[in-house]
Amino acid sequence: MVAPVAVQACRHSSLFVGLALLSCAQAALGSTGLPPAPRALADQGTVRYHLELVINGRHSGQVVAVNARDGRYLLDAALLRDAGVRLPGNPVGSIVLNEWADVRVDYDSASQQLRLQVPTDWLPRQRIEDPGLLAHIPASSSLGALFNYDLYYSAPANNATPYLSALLEQRAFDGFATLSNTGVYNHYFGGTDNPGNRYLRYDTYWRYNDEQALRSYQLGDYINGALNWTNPVRMGGLRFSRNFEVRPDLVTYPLLRYDGQAAVPSTVDLFINGYKASSSDLQPGPFAISNVPYISGAGEATIVTTDAQGRQVSTSLPFYVSNTLLTQGLSDFDLSLGRLREDYGRRSFAYGDTASSGIYRYGLNDQLTLSGHAEAAADLQLLGAGSDIALATFGTLSLATSASAGQGDSGQQYLLGYSYYSRRIGVNLQHIQRSDGYHDLSSLGGYRLSRRADQVSASLSLDGQGSLGAGYFDIQARDGNRTRLLNLSYSRSLGSRSSVYLALNKDLADSGYSVLLQWVLPFEVHGLLNVGITRDSRGRYSERVVWSRAAPSEGGFGWNLGQGGGSSRYQQADLTWRTQNVQLRAGLYGEAGNHTRWADASGSLVWMDRALFASNRINDAFVLVSTGGYAQVPIRYENQRVGQSDENGHLLVPWVAAYHPAKFQVDSLDLPANVQVADVEQRVSVRQGSGALLDFPIRTVVAASISLVDEQGSPLPLGSRAEHLASRQQAIVGWDGQVYFEGLQADNQLRVRLGDGGLCQVSFRLDIHKPTVSQIGPLPCRALSGGSP
Questions:
Q1: Would the pLDDT of 446 be above 80?
Q2: Cα-based distances in Å from 268 to 202, 257, 271
Q3: Looking at the predicted structure, is the pLDDT value of residue 91 above 90?
Q4: Closest C-alpha among 118, 39, 32, 105 to residue 70
Q5: pLDDT of residue 1
């Protein structure tokens, strides 16, 4: 046969080593006289590899099929897309990688890798975002009620009528909403100047916060929402508003953002004003950094990228972050409908005209936030529009205008504002101009708007030399009266402990001025010494020395002792005693020989978990910790010890911030050895104005280590299987016949299967109230007849 001879020559002759395999195949087929079979060009002389795909130095972890021919590499486009590569034109099927001008292909035979270097904009975009300084935990609350009280007794100087003032709040809550009522009861003890004993209601409302939608619904008394160019009023009715407070982990204003590209795997470090703020790993490709800490004002950011070979690229850019803006696409609103409150603080139920108001803000982009405002009543219509504009790195500009009609007149209001803050400098300017016919809802209550109001405030940080502050206020009333005030201040720390403060105030319409010079010296746990001298606008000087110490939050004593000089000879002294159940204060103040004496008791009574608790005053949210009935368990809140559980296993923590993911811990180191805690640390977020029951399951384990011996006194064999007959627990006998059981009873029986198949049984009694693991034995295990337990 001719064909085998041709093939054999191609296989063994060294002269044909450099020829392509295709030539051998053609010679073999040509000798038969048959035409060659048709085949695709890509398959001619093709070698298939299975290689790991490495893209721009990043190991994809994928092993892909690669066809190679004449130095060209073919790969399925779908495999590249699975690896995150975005190919121009979105091709389908096999593609020749070498045909892309911007792609470099290297075959590493030693590591069996196909290394690709592609343009960075072909790779997926990475977002390095801030997960939030606070982790989001859905808020919860339990069924309960509380009664807040603040009882203040005063015996005024000059033999005035003594009186008792009781500030009271009643609050009920569950897992849905909160119902609250506040008021004050005044009682006078005789005297001719007695205005009469009475109870005065302040506010009553029902409130529900929707944490998912960031909304609040309030029915009852409230203060409507306002902007920096509107005036809030008290109303009674319905209020529907955005509430960002339910998500303290969210940042509502635009933060610094940096866009860049990494050609190879790198790390990126972010420095804010020279201090390292974050560090993250980067994969090849474009990236955006927005994990900037919660900063506000002007500064400089430095972004440093470092690749695997240690090469660094540093980029610095100035920035300005304004917390008066809303991030792009975010909205804020407040809609109110009801009746205006009248004579608040003087009458309990005085409501005037029906009115409505609304505000709306929207972040059009990160540089512009638009706002609108509307008010309406029987004889008033008001519309306004405003904007907050970011001026690059030069601060924030605020513009607003509004017009009103009603009460037989019409008018306009204009606002121009500017603010700039940096690490060293702070400036705030505001000018409001109103025409005579301009009115808003506050005017219906008798409040007269000023015709013009100018406000300028500035601050300057001198680093280690202290800080300066200045303020100027110029207000022109509707009747033409003008008030101009100037304030200057300086403060500085003296070493690491004390500080000094100097302030000057002057009414520019008066020739006099007032000055305050104050020196503050702390004495760690022994209080704070405050020494000052003042000069009033008439040129009279007085000195004052105050030594004070705040009562510790966990309980203890605090005091306040003061002596003033000058013509008044002012004196003050009071003592505070704080416990877990109540805070008591008493003292006196006034001139020598003519003092006002007073006493105060404040706290809360809480009903929850079918029990009544006394606590310090609860202003917002609280947590009731339960240790499953176990007493004297130390409790920590945010790593600070706040007390221990009472005889029923409860501890009430009254100063928890609403919606904050608070951390609570039980200190298990002080617990007896036979006490087990399933979880020593938990985080809980509490709804506004309510309380949450936090359970720490703690149980007493009756346990014993039993030493078992046979009837001759020798330890039972290692590996024997013991069973507690009552609970059916099983355990392996260890060295020296030791076996350990939990969940034991006063009377116990163990049955043991020995290694040779024999059975024995032992009985013993146990003190279940013993606070430690009992050591029992050695106990003889009596042999049983029969082959099974």
A1: no
A2: 55, 14, 10
A3: no
A4: 105
A5: 34
